[in-house]
């Protein structure tokens, strides 16, 4: 290796990395979750769910400390998936920083260490993760595969002034609970005054209480905006996606006074 390693992340970034890894491997307490949300709001990180996705594979090897080592095929599977998350030129293990929670967890220490090795730049910098637009394209590409449940629905604008020039679509997979919203021409909001919020209506739930899909903003510069869907509860049979305008931070139950965009899902087995 030639040349000095990159400098470590500043303190906030280092703490964000620790909380993201802890969330993926152990889960967070209410206080830690609040801390992470606050840090991410002040220091945005591209695709913070990347840790959770790789942890799904790593968790298969989370065995007691006195059990056999992590199976070779699991290590190979994780290593094979690593290039999708960082440039090949930077793909080399990085020494994990000690975290006493991890090393007190027996076999899970291996999982946590591997998690950091896959997702860290040399010197402790986070590897570039796919953008929301790239993840959306990946999900759309899966739509044509046999057995795929991915749906892609166009937004329908209502009479609400925010949707006067709006178009776009929503892409969703119930199997993976993953989805993305694409907007063009949706009116920018003022975060201190109001925010957009997604609602997912589920045939398996009371329609009075759709599933919260997360709040989001549309920047003043406009253009094309891709927003990840972050459902708070599991969705089993989506029937309608609706975007509302709410107070900053969103609401638990929407009054539905303003619904600029809706996208209706086809009935099961339709088409």
Write up what this structure looks like.
By secondary structure, this protein is α+β, with helices and mostly antiparallel strands. It has 2 domains: 11-119, no CATH class; 132-264, Immunoglobulin-like (Sandwich). It is 27% helix and 19% strand. It is built from 7 helices and 9 strands; from the N terminus they run αααααααβββββββββ. The chain has helices spanning 11-25, 30-42, 50-58, 72-81, 100-103, 108-119, 132-142, and strands spanning 151-154, 156-157, 167-173, 178-184, 195-202, 211-216, 224-228, 238-246, 261-264. The strands form 2 sheets. The chain has a 5-stranded antiparallel beta sheet, with no helix packed on it. Strands 1-3-4-7 form a 4-stranded antiparallel beta sheet, with helices on one face. The termini are far apart.
